[in-house]
Write a structure and sequence with these properties.
Two copies of one chain form a homodimer. The mean pLDDT of chain A is about 95. Chain A is of the alpha/beta class and about 240 residues long. Chain A contains seven helices and 13 strands. The longest helix of chain A is centred in the first third of the chain and has 13 residues. Chain A starts with a strand and ends in a 7-residue tail after the last strand. In chain A, helix 3 packs across helix 4 and helix 6 runs parallel beside helix 7. The relative contact order of chain A is 0.15. Chains A and B meet through helix 1, helix 3, helix 4, helix 5 and strand 6 of A and helix 1, helix 3, helix 4, helix 5 and strand 6 of B. Chains A, B: This is Precorrin-3B C(17)-methyltransferase. Chains A, B: Its EC number is 2.1.1.131. Chains A, B: One of its GO terms (molecular function) is precorrin-3B C17-methyltransferase activity.
């Protein structure tokens, strides 16, 4: 059996009991090195670990399949939820494509978006979208279309992979487009290193959104037209008569 | 301190370690009765519990605030993630409105959408929206606008509260509108009683989506234009070169 496990955003406290139990019982754990480091206190000396670098997903998936096919109980891990821009998709894609006879099970975890939301207050309380601004795997035209739709239909909007040292225009565009559709006072929350050492949060507005402070370790949440900030919390109301 | 806790979709196995630890140490646990039942194995005889029925959120929040103000460590619970159509928002709204001096902390959980996705395969692997079809707290015109935007911009679309015995037109409209924008073969997954006794899953297509089988215990996930079903899994590819 190959378990595809979401380990949650960072701290092992935010991992599910199920994920924790499975990680302790498997023979092999495969993961990107930063994620293996996050769970180092769970891994025992009897377990085999395999790691490789960023963008080497295919290598890790093939290794995990190899270990599983050889009879090992194997886990491949993602941070957050493995089903959100994580390993669940590519593992299943490859198994399907190559027609491997392997049982897989996805163990869901707390996604980065929801962990960031909890740090900020309650911003996702109404309909929301998650959009990855990375154009490595998705054409920019498609990302742009989704940014526009999210802004126009007043969705709370979560941005994954918002900005890197080489890729800046996507967040600039998002800010400008939203400013065209929503008030400049629309609250925006940024969480960096969610649930990890050095966690930082910033509450700001669309107009003041400091682009240069946003990087690949940041999750950005743009409120909808009803969102507000009160006592240091970003809150999106849902219409309860309170 | 008032903890607003997402207990995950159902089984305590899918609760975070943090949520479990806090639930064991608090003096008072407040929650809708179905959710208190889900965590009955965690609650000890020394703890006070307070429950009330559906749509009595305000009553529960006031009770939780009362207990907290009286010096009790208190938890108020939601299923899934408390920040997604859960208690995090209304608790903070009420505290803000009444200007209560109470510390709150949101403990995130695995949302129903992500737990349903794990049961189905890997449908949320690309940009997705969550939309609640309930028109109790949100005008239907606003919901409709968001359904249209989601369909037009090719988002994977998760429907919460999709259909009840008294409310059927919202899901009918969604199906018809999506059929107008996406192929009738677009895969759709439905999970009922996620991670609870009697969990059921159904893989189907937009065209064949059986409206009458969908109820308030169901979560519906509509794939994007690239999603496919293979070996009983609903998969949305993300563009990896595999």
């Amino acid at each position: 059996m190959l378990y595809i496990i979401g380990i949650g955003p960072g701290s092992n406290q935010k991992m599910t009991i199920e994920a924790n139990n499975i990680l302790q019982k498997v023979d092999v754990i495969v993961g990107y090195k930063t994620y293996l480091k996050l769970i180092k206190d769970i891994i025992s000396q009897n377990q085999i670990t395999y790691t490789s670098g960023m963008r080497e997903e295919k290598d890790r998936i093939e290794k995990a399949i190899e270990y599983t096919a050889a009879g090992n109980k194997t886990a491949i891990i993602s941070s957050g939820d493995a089903g959100v821009y994580g390993m669940a998709g590519p593992v299943m894609e490859l198994i399907t494509k190559k027609n491997y006879q392997i049982d897989v099970e996805v163990i869901p975890g707390v996604p980065a978006a929801n962990a960031a939301a909890a740090v900020l207050g309650a911003p996702l309380m109404h309909d929301y979208v998650t959009i990855s601004l990375s154009d490595i795997l998705t054409p920019w035209e498609q990302i742009k279309k989704r940014i526009k739709a999210a802004a126009q239909a007043d969705f709370v909007t979560v941005l994954y992979n918002p900005r890197s040292s080489r890729r800046k225009k996507q967040l600039n565009f998002t800010k400008e487009y939203f400013l065209d559709k929503r008030s400049p006072e629309t609250p925006v929350g940024i969480v960096r290193n969610i649930s990890r050492e050095g966690q930082e949060k910033l509450l700001t507005t669309l107009e003041k959104l400091p682009l240069e402070k946003v990087d690949m370790l940041s999750t950005v949440i743009i409120g909808n037209s009803q969102s507000y900030i009160s006592e240091g919390k970003l809150i999106t109301p849902r219409g309860y008569n309170l």
